[in-house]
Amino acid sequence: MIIASQKRKENIAEYLLYMWQIEDIIRANGLDLDKIKENVISKFPADEATLRQMADWYESLIDMMRREEVTEKGHLQMNNNIIGDLADLHRRVLADPSFQEYHKEFYATLPYIVELRAKSGSDKAGEIETCFNALYGVLLLRLKHSEISNETAAAVAHISKFIALLSKYFYLDEHDRLFKHDDE
């Protein structure tokens, strides 16, 4: 809750990856708030009021996961909406020839996206979601202390740089500082 709020303000990509991790933490604890209190919330150094707020936050996420039927896999609609917002921004920025740096980063990353999409089988995610799936997959590998191939590391380096730029543009767009307006 506290970390999520801070990440949401500062970096949408980090926020989304964090929220995906929270979904998995909730699943790993069997959508059981008592287990989450014991295994997660109790480890957080905070006062009682903050710990109660955290428990309420997790409880609301558990409720949303049940209502949205993502208790075993998938993502909450609010997280899917962010992917949609990022994909929409991606299309708008690509359509604008003044964003040459973005075009360069995207087209340098595109071969990796195409390769990842080809490997994904029947679950064809869009370009932006494919990038996030790759970043999250590598995050999980690192948490498990698994080896990451040089090819994967290279792909993720390109994807990270591209998503960092998209996140920067997302922040600027949210604050109406990305696209020049006719009234300026």
The average pLDDT value, as a whole number, equals 91
Number of strand segments: 0
Which regions contain 5 or more consecutive residues with pLDDT less than 50? none
Strand content: under 5%
Counting structural domains, the number is: 2
Helix content: over 70%
Give structural attributes.
184 residues, mainly alpha, globular
Topology:
Blueprint: H1 2-10, H2 12-28, H3 33-39, H4 48-67, H5 77-95, H6 100-119, H7 127-143, H8 150-174
Helix pairs in contact: 1-2, 6-7, 6-8, 7-8
What would you say this structure looks like, in words?
There is one protein chain. About 75% of the residues lie in helices and about 0% in strands. The protein has two domains: about 1-65, no CATH class; about 80-175, no CATH class. It has about 180 residues and is mainly α. The mean pLDDT is about 90. The chain is built from eight helices and no strands.
Outline:
The chain contains eight helices and no strands. By secondary structure, the chain is mainly alpha-helical. The mean pLDDT is 91.
